[in-house]
Structure formats: structure tokens, C-alpha cells
Write a structure and sequence with these properties.
single chain, mainly alpha, 11 helices
């Protein structure tokens, strides 16, 4: 599998340095193009399905071409869970959000539900359009499916929408990561210089440049390795979040009524169990790299706490 094209990051670096409103406007355009493509794909896909004669509507659930069992689904889910990182990126823009206590939780829930519906719906229709599990080129499987649904014209539109999506993803990812790094400056986790905003732009310039430099690893790493590493981090975060809900609400706050047991114990426990299950589907390389990176973080934490003899640095989450 080839490496990621790093050029969208150069464009996103310039946009992120100037103003957060530029990112928002650019993303509106990107989402509009992607939405238009989804509508066209669904319409043309359904048209091709209805004109194909007898269609097995259960085929996406039963598999094809010898792809038996659920193990391939969980293996793919362990990698593609990074697609849900958008819900985490929403929370990193608290400082730029109006009424964040009200709007951020709503945005996260809407993002999660809407993304899930879109992913499931498109995957289902894609399998009906081209009910196979083997492709001429795995890296270009989407092209084969889209070509079967709408021909070369839809493939060309998909390519344009894909490029736009890559730019939008680079914009949002870089903006969110840089703001996480920026928030760690004042807390003492990273040098204080990373917690300063540019006097003119009001953006975290140094974290953005640092994120851009690290993104250049796309020149030497392949897409599968990068996505697997990101998924490892995502699964760690999802696991810890579920455990944190139990620790904070069920144990510390003692919210243990009938509603509390369901919301603060049962549901996060199920979420934690499912996340751990997905862990088992990651490749050994991903787990090895992920554990090595976690070890680096543990060593850095030991340094900051003088061998764990001092409290760990805390983020200041108080509203101004």
C-alpha cells in the first residue's frame, strides 16, 4: 500500500495559522461536496441494483466469496474505528465554541449517530452494488464499487470529492491536535511556549508547525501502518473514557440509582468490553508500536512527576 500524499497538510498549515473561521468555512464546502456525492452514489447505486434483476438484500450480512464469520468485520473495525475520531475532534474546539457546555455534547452525539448511519448505509448499498469480497486492487476497491454504480463520471466526481475530503480532514485534524498540544503548555506537560497564541492571528502557531512537521512522516509510512497506529490510540482513549465514567460518576459521585447503574456502570462497561474486543483484532505491529509509544509517555510522566512522587500535571478546564 502506498504512502499518504502529504501535500494537503501544507495547505492546511497555512489555513490553520491564519484563523479558525477559515477552517469552518472550508469545511462547509468540503462537507457540501461530500454530501452531494453521497446523494448521487445512493441514487445511482439503487438504480443499478433495481436493474440487476434478483437482489439478495441479506447478502451484506451473510458475506460472499468465502468471507465467512465475523472475524474479518472485527479486524476491519479495529482499523476503521479511527473514522469516529471526529467526535473527539469536536471537543478540542471548546474555546472557539459559543455556549460549549450546551453545544459541544450535542455536536458530539449528532456526529456519532450521523456518522454511524452514513457508514452503515453506504457500506450496505456498496455491497449490494458489487457483492464481492475480493477486488482487482484492494487499495482501489472503492473505485470498483463506484464504477459499478455510476461509471466513469461518478468515479471522476468521487476523485474530486476524495481530494476535497483529504483537505478537510487535514484541516480539522491538524487544528484539533494543535489545540490539544496548546492546552498542554500551561499545564506543564509540554514547554510553556507551546501554550502561547500568536499575537495577530490568535492561533497556536508553534503547535500547528510541530503537527505539520510530524505529518511529513506520511512520506515514509504506508497508510495501513498509520491507520493502525491511530486506531491503537483511539482504542486506548475509548477504553479509558469508559473506565473514567465508571470511576467518576459511579464510584466517586455515587450516582447509583436505577438510572445511574445503567448510564454510569452497565453502558460504559459494555463499551469497555467491546473496545477491548476490538483491540484483539489489531495487528501485532500496531500493538507493538502502540505499546512502545505508551512506554515513552510513561517515561515522560515519570520525569514530570519526579518518579511519580509529585501529582501529575492537570489541565485547567475552568471556564473564563
Amino acid at each position: 500500500m502506498g504512502s499518504n500524499p502529504p501535500w494537503p497538510d501544507f495547505w492546511s498549515t497555512d489555513s490553520n495559522l491564519v484563523l479558525i473561521t477559515a477552517i469552518a468555512k472550508a469545511n462547509f464546502v468540503v462537507v457540501g461536496l461530500q454530501g452531494l456525492f453521497i446523494v448521487l452514489f445512493v441514487a445511482l447505486g439503487l438504480s443499478s441494483i433495481t436493474g440487476a434483476g434478483t437482489v439478495d438484500l441479506l447478502a451484506p450480512f451473510t458475506g460472499a466469496d468465502g468471507a465467512d464469520g465475523l472475524s474479518p468485520i472485527f479486524a476491519d473495525s479495529a482499523i476503521l474505528c479511527l473514522s469516529y475520531l471526529g467526535l473527539g475532534a469536536v471537543s478540542t474546539f471548546a474555546e472557539e465554541t459559543k455556549d460549549p457546555k450546551r453545544n459541544l455534547p450535542r455536536a458530539i452525539m449528532i456526529t456519532t449517530v450521523l456518522a454511524g448511519v452514513i457508514f452503515l448505509g453506504l457500506a450496505y448499498i456498496s455491497h449490494l452494488v458489487l457483492p464481492v469480497s475480493t477486488f482487482n486492487d484492494v487499495d482501489a476497491a472503492a473505485i470498483e464499487v463506484i464504477g459499478a454504480a455510476g461509471g466513469n463520471l461518478l468515479v471522476a466526481f468521487f476523485t474530486a470529492a476524495y481530494i476535497a475530503g483529504s483537505l478537510g480532514s487535514a484541516l480539522t485534524s491538524q487544528a484539533s491536535v494543535s489545540r490539544i498540544i496548546h492546552s498542554m503548555g500551561p499545564s506543564g506537560v509540554f514547554p510553556a511556549a507551546l501554550g502561547k497564541l500568536h499575537a495577530g492571528f490568535g492561533t497556536p502557531v508553534l503547535p500547528i508547525l510541530l503537527t505539520s512537521a510530524l505529518s511529513l512522516l506520511a512520506f515514509v509510512l504506508d497508510l495501513l501502518t498509520i491507520s493502525s497506529l491511530i486506531s491503537f490510540g483511539a482504542l486506548v482513549a475509548f477504553s479509558v473514557v469508559n473506565l473514567a465514567v465508571i470511576k467518576h460518576y459511579f464510584i466517586d459521585e455515587k450516582a447509583r440509582g436505577a438510572r445511574g447503574v445503567v448510564h454510569n456502570l452497565v453502558l460504559p462497561a459494555i463499551g469497555f468490553a467491546l473496545t477491548v474486543w476490538l483491540w484483539t483484532s489489531l495487528s501485532g505491529l500496531s500493538i507493538g508500536f502502540g505499546l512502545a509509544w505508551a512506554a515513552v509517555g510513561l517515561v515522560w510522566l515519570a520525569y514530570l512527576t519526579r518518579g511519580f512522587r509529585r501529582p501529575a500535571p492537570q489541565l485547567d478546564l475552568k471556564e473564563a
